[in-house]
Amino acid sequence: MQYRTSDIITQLPNIDFTDSGNFFLIAGPCAIESESMAMNIAEKVKRITSDLKIPYIFKGSYRKANRSSIHSFTGIGDEKALKIISKVAATFEVPVTTDIHTDEEAAMAAEYVDILQIPAFLCRQTSLIAAAAHTGKVVNIKKGQFMSAASMQFAVQKVRECGNNKAMLTERGTTFGYQDLVVDYRGIPVMQSFEVPVIMDCTHSLQQPNQTTGVTGGKPELISTIASAAIAIGTDGIFIETHPNPSEALSDGANMLHLNHLESLLTHLVAIRKSIQG
Hints:
The protein contains nine helices and 13 strands. With about 280 residues, it is of the alpha/beta class. The two termini are about 30 Å apart.
């Protein structure tokens, strides 16, 4: 059988507030920089989401493979970072997710996390999706910047044809010119028609790639705009990368939300959610 959207989320370990009527949140740092940083972020987001009754999934990349420059930060070591993510899960009793980049990473990462994320640039990599699916974990596939929403049905089919019915899709914008992304919100209900949870990535959709400096830019001041529109049209989940000091973050700081701004944003989004529920 195929899972309904709600089934996939409610079956995650330690997921709270699934009966609250709220959207779910995937949030955390772009990359795991240290244990103290990851724990600090997870503690604050857990408190906020508990107060607002939002189902929460912690996200952190144990390795960054898609970098503009060879000199960009890629990680503190795979095993070290994965153990930190696992410690977050155990300490705060939340499900956790990370992204993978090669077939071999799927089984390794699955030992530590509950959801395997397929990066947008790799969403057509059949063997990678299959490797993730064969772990039995939930597989969250980010829609490529070069893909239509309708074409993502085939990525979902790849997961299901491997015997895994736990696929999710994440919208993160479409390439517009060389250095901008745009979000076509018509794609959200299209992807929801595949009977999977659909998530709006509110931070990566505001990236400005291909900068001449070799460092990706961003427009974090528009995170609330992207998120509010997504909730208003009934998106299932929200993805936000957040950091206590984005200007000093080792990866993707230009488009991350300052951790101090998260509570007010989520409070606003919960109000929108309640208003559209009548």
